[in-house]
Amino acid sequence: MNIILLGPPGAGKGTQARFLVEERGMVQLSTGDMLRAAKESGTEMGQIVADVMDRGGLVTDEIVIGLIREQLETVKANGFIFDGFPRTLAQADALADLLAEKGESLDAVIELEVNDEVLVDRIVGRAAEAAAAGQSVRADDNAESMKVRLMEYYKKTSPLIGYYYAKGQLTKVDGLGEIADVKAAIAKVLDS
Length: 192
Ligand code: ADP
Prior knowledge:
Layout: E1 3-6, H1 13-24, E2 27-30, H2 31-41, H3 44-55, H4 61-74, E3 80-83, H5 89-101, E4 108-113, H6 116-132, H7 143-157, H8 159-166, E5 170-174, H9 179-191
Helix pairs in contact: 2-3, 4-5
The structure holds adenosine-5'-diphosphate.
Adenosine-5'-diphosphate (ADP) binds next to helix 2 and helix 3.
């Protein structure tokens, strides 16, 4: 089973993806994690994407599609969870092609519905918690980058909601509830 978790920054995609990995043996493909790893390891690609990411902008389709292609070609999994990918219609088309090449398809797109106030609070809270615990704070977890990230989401990513709805693949889940309730709602979609 291959699924996409769709939703704005701070919606809880990563949190829910981790449950699916632990309990269903699926593999999480987070382009955000891959890009942060590239940034930290100082590769050429990491240097190219660092500025854009820190400011909250989107990295080019070419780069992220390349990262996903590499994973799909090498990783064997009992289903993939796409987290933070696709973020543009071009990426959505590329994903459909990549899955088709493997003889696979997309089984569900789960949209985590939240509201902007909660998002900004969650992200700013996440940064404050990390700082208080002496952990590193994501360079883009600040109010300024968050504004750009939200704008990018509405401009470039939210059209995917209509796109997958039209294909009959979209299910909306309330992302404002308790983590366990969101988890249960997702399980219901996947097991139906
Ligand atoms: P969040 O969902 O919390 O904003 P992610 O960890 O998914 O964070 O992504 C962090 C950053 O990485 C994004 O703001 C963007 O700069 C870059 N990025 C991640 N995935 C993509 C993608 N599919 N296309 C373009 N840029 C991406």
